[in-house]
Structure formats: structure tokens, C-alpha cells
Design a protein that fits this description.
about 290 residues; about 30% helix; five-stranded mixed sheet; 7 helices; alpha+beta; 14 strands; Jelly Rolls
Length: about 290
């Protein structure tokens, strides 16, 4: 992996943001965006336990999906408050993602402000909460709806790997899926370049998010996240401004995912092997192109 730091600013004007980051699809850390929100001081473990602790949520472990697993299938269910108590008490390889806490407690939407001055197209019905215990992992993927994301960390530290969408074949993307075949878990201790050599060619970014950091992830960016400490974050999603970008997201969400889910149910092993053969061919092509340069 060829990694570089992400630009970091305290604040940024809308014009500079659009010119230097939104339009060229370049990630950015904004450190002061969330510090004016009531949520910056207000949101903590006890607050969430009090207001929505009785709601049942799906939790996900660190095991990568196999040939039979449909995307976003929860590994277990428990009360949100019970999960939060476990998460803040010590290492826990369980996480929660795409939890619309605001459906259960709409009053807390008053705790933050939509940054409409930076970009349009925010999907304001679906701000999402992401929670992880220390040691939990979000495996390498891109978001299926191809939205732009503003991801704000509110507690704990989280290490993030980011890659542009165009690096997909070097990352061993599984065809018809948003996931990588390779396992990037604990990549700082070592990565399996023997079986996934094209990853050496992938150019991306690395950052550790802390309380108050807002990460701008352009549409389609690959991301892998490791919870250094138990923590939670909120994502605000914005649809792409172009018609082509919107249509691409809709196709992946309703077409690509539906076909993949159907094939996993009807011919899982054949489908998995076919995708594996295809992705290895794509990766080999990237290695060959690199060798010719």
C-alpha cells in the first residue's frame, strides 16, 4: 500500500471545499466543524443508554463474509443499551453500523447542524450512527449508494484506510459486491501480500480519527476502519450532484445487490468461485501494467 496523510484544516470556506476537495474527490479532515454542535459535548455513552437503550439493534463481528453471506446480515441482536455497556467496558469485537438512532429519538437531530454550505444533496432522513468496541473492525468496502460522506467521530479513536474507487482492482474487489476479497484487519502488523500482491500498488490515505474530527469521504471511496478505542461516530450522507452519479448509486443499491443476493442463495459456491477467478484476473492485469511501466 502506498499511503499518504489526509489534508487537515480547522475550517474551510465553501468555495475552497468545492474547488479543492469536492470536485476533485479528495478526502479532507475538518477539525472544528462539529465543535460548535451541542452534540460535541452532549453525546456520550450514558446519554445514548438513557434515551434509546431499550431499542434492539443488529451487531456485527469481525469475521469477513463468505460465499453464503448476504451483505449487511447481522450476526446477533441485543438491546442498544446492553451493547453500549459492553463496548465501553473493554475490548469487544462487535460493532453497530447504519443505526438510525434519530428515528427513535428525533429530538437529538437538534444537536447538530447540516453543513449545507459545503455541499447539497444531504439525505436528511437518514443520518446514521456507527459504534464499535475496542478491537472491532469494519472491513474494506465502499458504500453501495455511492454517496459523499461527512463522518464525525464523537468518542474514542479509530484508524481509517481510504482509497479512491478507481483502485478497486488493486484492492481485490469482489465483482457484484462492495467488499474486498483481501483481509486488511490489523494491517499495521502485517498484510498478506503473498496472496494479494496487487495491493502493493494501491495508492490511498491513512488517518486516525479522534473526538471532533470530521472526515470527508468522496463518493465511492473504499474505507477500512479499526477501533483503537471503543467509540461512536455519525455519518451524514449526500447524494452526488450529477445524474450519472445518482443512477450509479441506484443501480448498485437495487440492481447489483439484488442479483448478488439471488446468486448467493441459488448457487453460492459457483458464484463465489466465479467472482474469485474474475478478481484475480483483474489484479493480475494491474500487476502486468505496472511491470510494463
Amino acid at each position: 500500500m502506498q499511503l499518504q496523510d489526509i489534508d487537515r484544516v480547522a475550517s474551510i470556506s465553501p468555495d475552497d471545499f468545492r474547488k479543492n476537495y469536492y470536485e476533485p474527490k479528495k478526502p479532507l479532515i475538518i477539525t472544528n466543524l462539529a465543535k460548535s454542535w451541542p452534540a460535541y459535548q452532549k453525546w456520550n455513552w450514558d446519554y445514548f443508554i438513557k434515551i434509546v437503550g431499550d431499542k434492539e439493534v443488529g451487531v456485527y463481528n469481525n469475521i469477513k463474509s463468505d460465499a453464503y453471506t448476504a451483505i449487511n446480515t447481522a450476526d446477533a441482536y441485543m438491546k442498544f443499551g446492553e451493547y453500549l455497556q459492553k463496548a465501553r467496558s473493554g475490548p469487544l469485537d462487535l460493532r453497530i453500523f447504519l443505526f438510525n438512532i434519530f428515528q427513535h429519538a428525533p429530538e437529538i437531530t437538534q444537536d447538530f447542524t447540516w453543513p449545507d454550505e459545503l455541499m447539497s444533496g444531504f439525505v436528511k432522513k437518514y443520518p446514521m450512527l456507527f459504534v464499535g468496541g475496542q478491537g472491532s473492525i469494519t472491513h474494506m468496502h465502499f458504500d453501495i449508494d455511492m454517496s459523499h460522506i461527512l463522518h464525525t467521530q464523537f468518542a474514542g479513536k479509530k484508524r481509517v484506510l481510504l482509497f479512491p474507487f478507481e483502485e478497486q482492482y488493486k484492492l481485490y474487489r469482489k465483482p457484484w459486491e462492495v467488499l474486498s476479497m483481501a483481509n486488511y484487519a490489523n494491517y499495521k502488523e502485517g498484510f498478506d501480500y503473498e496472496h494479494f500482491p496487487a495491493v502493493k500498488l494501491a495508492k490511498g490515505y491513512e488517518v486516525v480519527l479522534e473526538h471532533g474530527d470530521t472526515l470527508y469521504m468522496p463518493a465511492g471511496f473504499w474505507h477500512h476502519m479499526e477501533y483503537i478505542e471503543a467509540g461512536f461516530a455519525m455519518s451524514l450522507r449526500a447524494m452526488q450532484s450529477s445524474l450519472g452519479g445518482k443512477l450509479t448509486g441506484l443501480w448498485k443499491l437495487f440492481g447489483m445487490r439484488g442479483i448478488d443476493t439471488l446468486m448467493k442463495k441459488t448457487a453460492p459456491v459457483w458464484w463465489y468461485n466465479r467472482k474469485k477467478e474474475q478478481l484475480l484476473q483483474y489484479a493480475q492485469r494491474e500487476l502486468s501494467i505496472s511491470a510494463e511501466k
